[in-house]
Amino acid sequence: MNLNFSAFEGKNIFKFAKYDIKEIDKKKYIFPDSINKEQSSGAPLIDIEKDFEESILIDLLNIGKLAFYNETDIEKSVLDFVNKYSTLGLINDLPLNKYFFLDDKIVLKDYNYIGNSDLTTVVDRKKYFKLFFPTCDDNQIKELINNVTKLTETPAMEKYILSDVNKLLSGSNLYCEPLDMFIQYAKYLYSLLNNISNEDNYNIDELLKQFEINNIKMSLSRKETLAVEFQITCLKQYIDYYFAKTVAQDINLLKICKFCNKAFLAVNPKSEYDTPQCKNKANVYKSRAKNKTD
Prior knowledge:
Number of helices: 11
Strand content: 15-25%
C-alpha cells in the first residue's frame, strides 16, 4: 500500500485589505482597518494553494529573528506580513478541540503563546473570545458564541462547519490578534530552526511532536493508496505544516545565514549564506581576523 502524505485541503483563510496595530486596554492588537461596533464577515477568502509563496515562511521566521535578537522594527515587519498575507488565525488553532466554542472551558495546546507558558492552559470560553474580540462587550461576545454554536446545529456536511466558523471568527471585522502572541509564535519557530542549524544530531521526531495540527483526515483510494490530508483552518496551521514538512526532509534546505542570521531557503544544501553579499562580508571578516593573528 502506498502512502500519500502531501495532500492539503482548506481554502478558508480570510484577509482584509489593510491591517493596523493599535493599543486596546494597554495591550497591542493587530486588527483590520474596517473594525467597527457591528460584526460583519467581510474579509474575502484567499486560496493558499494558489496564492501561497515560499516567502511566507521566510518572512515569518525573520520576524522571529528580530524578536530572538531583540532587534528593532518588529511591529513594522509584522504589519508588512499581515498586510501581505493575513493574520495567523490563532483563535482557531490554539484549542485542542476543533469545536472549542461548544465548551464552557477551553483547553489549549501546550504551545499556546498565552502568558509565555508552555503548559496546557484551561481558559473560560467568554474570556478566550474576549482575547480576540477586545472591542466587544459581554452581550456581543455572548451573541458571537451563540451564532457560532448555531452553525453546528444546522444540517450540513461536517466538512463545511469549520469553514463557516472561520468566516464568523477570523473573517470578522471585529477579530483582532494580540501582537505579543504573534511575535511569540514567530520567535518560537525561529528558535527551533536555530537549534536545528546549530546541532548536528537534532531530534526531528521530538520537534514534530510539537506541531499538534488538528483535523487530520484519512481516506483509502481505489488504488489502495492511503492519503493523509490536513484540513487547514488558519494560516498558522499552514505555516506549521510547511515548516515541519521542510525540516523533516532528508536534505533540509531551510537554513539560517551564518553572517546575518536571517532564515532562507537554500538552492544548494551546502550553502551557508543567504546572499552573495553576506558571503563576501563573512570572507572579509575572516581575512581580517586571520591577519590580526599572523
